[in-house]
């Protein structure tokens, strides 16, 4: 914006107006995690975008992971990290570290940054108000949780009181066990239960590419029914399969639009929500 004339800045705002009106008072769930969280300047930029969306009347819910930070903490205490099909094997000690890092350091850091950007955020984890109830997914994975129930009341209470809920994906059961929950899965379920207008998944890739080595082959729009064929053809493969499964699940649960965008691009959320062009891949 620094390079624009005053008239050009006004034009930018006017062009964004229909999108601001379309999303006014609607809920948008943003899933933020992985490598998109590692750069501090980028993190501040993303939180600034979320504050802006909140200030123009969009009810933003931020759901975050923090896998790299968990791995880093485990390494510091000399504990080896094992993954099975992209899921972290979580014994009782690892579950404690997950809770400490996600619900503590990572969550409160994001809340703090939002505060410094002029926003009001409230840090929550899935244990608060038994928001995310879970059971053991597979015994060999330990305390990796499969979501059994979502209680949206704590999220709605925060939104109704003018706060941006910042949710770390730690779950619990009636016996008091704590579970490590996949952030994509949690964001998808939360968006569905809230009847969100959109779910935006911030990753460190451009979106779904027909040729993974050629960014110009980005597929901007995918019907949910087309996804199985794209998986069969190998266009959606590897670690992208569970992400896309979560996107499709959100659509099935009533979310209108789901986006996979490159969270390492400055202001990617604003480009997606407030412009014609958009960015990344949209599932409808």
What is this entry, summarized?
The chain is an alpha/beta fold.
Poorly predicted runs of 5 or more residues: none
Shape, per Cα inertia axes? globular
Which H/E pattern describes the elements? HEHEHEEHEEEHEEEHEEHHEHE
Distance between the termini: 31 Å
| Number of β-strand runs | 14
Q: Determine Rg (CA atoms, Å).
A: 19 Å
- Beta-strand content bin: 15-25%
Averaged pLDDT: 92
| Helix vs. strand class | alpha/beta
Number of helices: 9
Main sheet?
Answer: 8 strands, mixed
Strand order of the largest sheet: 5-8-2-1-11-13-14-12
Helix content: 40-55%
Structural account:
The protein has 284 residues and is an alpha/beta fold. It is globular. The strands form 4 sheets. Strands 5-8-2-1-11-13-14-12 form an 8-stranded mixed β-sheet, sandwiched between helices. The chain has a two-stranded antiparallel sheet with strand order 3-4. The chain is built from 9 helices and 14 strands. 40% of the residues lie in helices and 21% in strands. The mean pLDDT is 92. It has helices spanning 6-23, 40-55, 67-76, 92-116, 153-160, 183-194, 227-232, 240-252, 268-274; strands at residues 27-32, 59-64, 83-84, 87-88, 121-125, 132-136, 145-150, 164-168, 170-172, 178-180, 198-203, 221-222, 257-262, 281-283. The longest helix is centred in the middle third of the chain and has 25 residues, at 92-116.
């Amino acid at each position: 914006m620094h390079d624009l004339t005053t008239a050009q800045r006004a034009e930018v705002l006017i062009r964004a107006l229909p999108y601001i009106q379309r999303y006014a008072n609607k809920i948008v769930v943003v899933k933020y995690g992985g490598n998109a969280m590692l750069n501090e300047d980028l993190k501040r930029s993303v939180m600034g975008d979320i504050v802006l969306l909140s200030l123009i009347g969009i009810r933003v819910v931020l759901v975050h992971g923090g896998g790299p930070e968990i791995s880093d903490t485990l390494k510091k205490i000399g504990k080896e990290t094992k993954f099975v099909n992209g899921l972290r094997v979580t014994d009782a000690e690892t579950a404690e570290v997950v809770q400490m890092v996600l619900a503590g350091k990572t969550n409160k850091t994001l809340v703090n940054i939002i505060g410094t950007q002029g926003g009001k955020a409230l840090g929550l984890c899935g244990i608060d108000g038994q928001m995310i109830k879970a059971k053991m997914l597979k015994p060999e994975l330990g305390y990796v949780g499969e979501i059994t129930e979502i209680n949206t009341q704590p999220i709605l209470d925060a939104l109704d009181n003018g706060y941006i809920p910042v949710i770390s994906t730690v779950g619990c059961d009636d016996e008091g066990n704590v579970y490590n929950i996949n952030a994509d899965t949690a964001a998808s379920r939360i968006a569905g239960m809230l009847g969100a207008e959109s779910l935006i998944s911030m990753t460190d890739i451009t979106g779904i590419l027909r040729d993974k080595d050629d960014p110009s082959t980005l597929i901007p729009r995918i019907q949910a029914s087309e996804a199985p064929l794209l998986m069969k053809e190998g266009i959606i493969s590897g670690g992208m399969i569970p992400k896309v499964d979560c996107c499709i699940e959100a659509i099935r649960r009533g979310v209108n639009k789901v986006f996979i965008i490159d969270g390492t691009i400055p202001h990617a959320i604003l480009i997606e929500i407030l412009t014609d062009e958009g960015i990344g891949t949209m599932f409808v």
